[in-house]
Amino acid sequence: MKIFCVGRNYAEHAKELNNNIPAEPVIFLKPKSALLLLNTPFYYPEFTNELHYEAELVLRISKNGKYISETQAAHYYNAVTVGIDFTARDVQNELKEKGLPWEKAKAWDGSAVVGKWVDLRPEMISKSINFSLKVNSELVQSGNSKNMLFSFNRIVSEISKYFALNIGDLVFTGTPEGVGECVVGDVLAGFFENDKVFQFDIK
Ligand code: ZN
């Protein structure tokens, strides 16, 4: 199982971190060990002092493929949810400054949180999907898939040029604006439309 992530897929988020709007999807990976397993506690990592949440729509790949065209891409995923691409922002800033890879900031154990899956019907792909994140019951991020710079289908097609997609692979599709810091004791809850798909606290 592979975990793909898209960076800078919402213009307002690229702006808030002073990044340029990309001409093509920015893709990076997390290993399987990054997935926070269900009912496993999330511990604040000891190597960061600036842990950020990034709430994102996550797709689940349902068919093996390579060189998938954008028009065929919708046949390759069948479930969606909200997840968190946890980021050690201080570590990431240091790595970015030195032009080094991001893995230490993004790909550590437990850094990928995935909510309860929702079946993705074809008509949902063309429509916009609302999602949000609350920290301690306060709304901190609210996104809509129509604001993505690159659509689900474009992302899946682009990834498949470089990497074979396999059943069960996950695709984090990028975070909207409003990323921020969280601390021990915070309670994070993710919503797909109005349904709560995860809730956990930071230990
Ligand atoms: Zn992200």
What does this structure look like?
This protein has 203 residues and is of the alpha+beta class. It has five helices and 14 strands. The structure holds zinc ion (ZN). The site of zinc ion (ZN) has 8 residues, from strand 1.
Give the tags:
binds zinc ion; 203 residues; alpha+beta; Fumarylacetoacetate hydrolase, domain 2; 18% helix
CATH class: Alpha Beta
| Coarse morphology | globular
Q: Describe the main β-sheet briefly.
A: 7 strands, mixed
Average pLDDT across residues? 95
The CATH homologous superfamily is called Fumarylacetoacetase-like, C-terminal domain
> Approximately what portion of the residues adopt beta-strand conformation?
25-35%
Could you tell me the CATH topology label.
Fumarylacetoacetate hydrolase, domain 2
